[in-house]
Amino acid sequence: MKIKLYWISIDSDILPHTDKDSNSDLNEVVNCILDEFESRDYFEELEIDPKLITILGIFSGRIVEGIADNLIDYYDGRWSGKLFSGDISATLGESLTYAILYTKFDIDISRIIPLRIVKYLGVSPDTIISSDNNKKLVEFLGITKSAILLVNSRSSINYNRYITAENIKKDILNLENLRYPDNYSLLSYVMNYNGLSSLMLVIKP
Q1: pTM for the complete prediction?
Q2: Which of 120, 121, 140 is nearest to 184 (CA)?
Q3: How many domains does the chain have?
Q4: Domain of residue 30, residue span
Q5: Of 44, 81, 82, 97, whose CB has the highest number of CB atoms within 10 Å?
Q6: What is the C-alpha separation between 58 and 94, in angstroms, rounded?
C-alpha cells in the first residue's frame, strides 16, 4: 500500500508566541502552508505494509473493529458512510501516522507513548517520541541536541481547505504550549487527496 507524503517544514519564529501577535498572523501562516501544499507537484511515496495498521491500531485512543477493512475502503476511494465516524477517522489517522513513522524512521514501536486518551486536557498530542536512539529521525529533522517530537494526527476522507486550516490552527495553538521553544512537532493530516495522502507539517525550533 502506498501513501503520498507532502512534507512541509516551518520555523517556530513565524508562529505567534506573544501578546503582540494576533489571530490574523496565524491565519496568514496557515494559508501560506496550504497554498504550498495545494501547489506541490512533488511528494514522497512511501510503501506501507497494511498489516501494520492493525498492529499499530492498539496505540489508538479508540478501539475499532476491522480497522484494516476500513482502510481498504479509504485507500480505494470508495465512499463509505462509516468513514465519516469520528472514531474510525481518528483511528485511521493515528494508525497510518504511526505506520509512517515506523516505516520511514524505524521508530521502535515499544517507544510509542499514546496520549490521545488524555486529550481532553486540551494540550496533549497523540504521542511523544524522543530523539534519543532514533538516528534516521534526528538526521531528517536536523536535530542537534536531545529533543522530543510531539506528534498529532487527524484524518478526513476528503480534503477541505477550510476544515484543514481550522484544524492546523487549533493543533498549533494547542501544541506550541508544549513544544516551544526547543522541541519539534509533527502534525499529520491523512486524507484522500489524489489518492491516499498525508500533509506532514513539521514545526522546528
Answers
A1: 0.89
A2: 140
A3: 1
A4: 2-204
A5: 97
A6: 10
